[in-house]
Design brief:
The structure holds 2 protein chains of 2 kinds.
Chain A lengths: L1 H20 L1 H19 L5 H4 L2 H27 L7 H15 L10 H23 L4 H21 L1 H4 L5 E2 L5 E2 L3 E2 L6 H23 L1 H11 L1 H6 L4 H27 L1 E2 L6 H14 L4 H29 L13 H15 L8 H7 L11
Antiparallel strand pairs in A: 1-4, 2-3
Helix pairs in contact in A: 1-2, 2-9, 4-9, 4-12, 4-13, 4-14, 5-6, 5-7, 5-12, 6-12, 9-10, 9-12, 10-12, 13-14, 13-15
Chain B lengths: L9 H55 L6 H20 L8 H31 L8 H22 L4 E2 L9 E4 L2 E4 H23 L1 H11 L1 H6 L4 H27 L1 E2 L3 H15 L5 H20 L6 H15 L14
Antiparallel strand pairs in B: 1-4, 2-3
Classes of the chains: A mainly alpha, B mainly alpha.
Amino acid sequence: MSGLRAALRDRFAPVRAYFRLHRSLGIVVGVLLISIALPLITRVPPFDGIQSTNAWANAFTNAAIYATLAMGLNVVIGFAGLLDLGYAAFFALGGYAYAFVAAPFTGIHLPFWPMLLAGGVVGAIFGILLGAPTLRLRGDYLAIVTLGFGEIVPITLMNSDKFTNGVNGISGIDKPNIPGILQFTLINPWPMYGLVIALFTVIMIMIFRLQDSRLGRTWDAIRDDELAAESSGVNIVISKLQAFAVGASIAGIVGVVNAAKLTIVTPDQFRFSVSISVLAAVVLGGMGNTIGVATGAFIIYLFQSILLKQLNTLVGNFNIPVLSDIDFLQFQYVLYGIVLVLMMLKRPQGIFPAGRRMREFAPLKIGKRGLK
Amino acid sequence: MATASVTPTSAIRLVGSLRLPSTILIFLGLAFAVLGIDQFVNALTLGAIYALVALGYTMVYGIIELINFAHGDVFMAGSFVAMFISKTLLGSTGGITDLPLLMVSVVVVLLLTIGFMAIVGAVIERLAYRPLRRAPKLAPLITAIGVSFILQNIIQFVFGPTIMTVPQLVPVEWAIQVSGARVPLLNLFVIATSIVLMIALQLFISRTRTGRAMRTTSMDRDASSLMGVDINRTIMITFLIGSGLAGAAGTVHGLYYGNTSFSLGFESGLKAFTAAVLGGIGNTVGAALGGFLIAFVEVGASAFGYGRWGGAIVFSLLVIFLVFRPTGLLGSHTGDRA
């Protein structure tokens, strides 16, 4: 076994060395391969029996949206060490920003592509507005303030009937299109799949580059020892604010895509449980590890939307007396709860711990790639 | 204050000690004048419930600096447990008009619920929080959020996702006349229960040996440990008491509103936490007063036609206080903060 692994490692050593030098290209190739492989896998049994390929594509699109959100939240929690419990609020603001200018409700129909960026700007603005006064607070107080903000936003959206159509939300939101080439529709999930995968890739590359930048190292310093970082000349508030703004703008961008995908936004889509589901993905994947967090989101999404749904139909088919009354879908929340509690108690570094964090936990161990 | 330039005479000291009570009286008078007696009594009743829940937040925060996110759901679970006990023991009755029987059944339901929820709280502490006591501060907070979700789901699983009817043991039609207005006895019962429990808590904290251990532990855990305080036991008792009070709050909430739902804990919990912050977190008197204040804000908002904004107003207060005055109105009793 180990001989095989070593042989494989030697065989692919040049490839790995190449992609270590050109990491962004590596991410593009990796995501591309996975995004082609996933729909192919769903065509073979037993996966093809679960749902149609189109439905799978839709599920993968949702999973990728969720994973992108998790990567964004990971910038705030994993990189800068700030617990943000109101992340769904920025997601909501991005979605509503697009819905407001691209739906029959207001009669304005701005094109999708510039609004994608505008959603990021909206997110960043609100991130800074919330962060500026609050980032001086200690960690747990900050968590509660963001939680309060996360509740205030949906309540405001729900009650400002004049601007947001209240509880019913804004529907009939424009789908994106590339004039003359491609029109996105509700029936064909593939263009949206491509768009979301592309967005996922771009954001992942940006986050990786950000992590290695001066700013990224600043976040590391702050998370490890705020006092030491400050004494070494790091402007703590500005750096934290940047982390908050980056995280919020990612949520804003994803919010625009999500609104365009669902063609409807309602306040109920952005409740506290959404923030917590993203947090669960971050905690499961391993705070600070971008790829781990994306994988964690993927696992949680598939678990809740495929496995639990399957359990429902399975139990329904077999007519097992007590079990068939249970709606397994309602267990998705207990899933978040169990993930949070068990991970914190048993494996706080996550299932895929960030390399740097591992070295923090075990400073004397030299990793596989260390000291070369 | 050692730096005070004037030595306080006894008269000044008397005025100083009367400042808080007189502020409260003036506030109550104003609220009464603005709201009218019906809304005033409603606000007091709601405040009594918030105050009981807020006490649990503030005690736990005071002693281990953990925002016990699951506390709101302990309160929610308490309302379900009370409903279950009262339905099992008494059947789905409405009001009990026989006074001695009523008193016995209410006390039995209340005590059983308090006891059960106290044990639940202590178990949560033992399983979920104690292993993380030396972990980074955010770890137990994340665990607490997880526990909150798990509690909600257990209740939803056992009792179903619909709004449940709770037997209102105290007859809703009983009322006394106060200057022409009708004040239901039910409201007075809720307020009285809450005040009795709060006074008992104050006596316990200030007079007993365990209460003293709780106070010293929240001041300096290591030093109290060196002085022979059993820290684990003290923290567990704090959870027992806090969760027991939440159970009492759940009981009276059910009696008062006549219904409960599994999603009750999140919003009420956050409001009660706001109350604890308003009163100065770690400060039990402050938490109780904060509970009433939040209730007045909420009832006031709905009296002026902004009922739908009640939650947003309270959470804005929470954000504003945490940012600008994290020690609350009365000052926090914890050491290092914000």
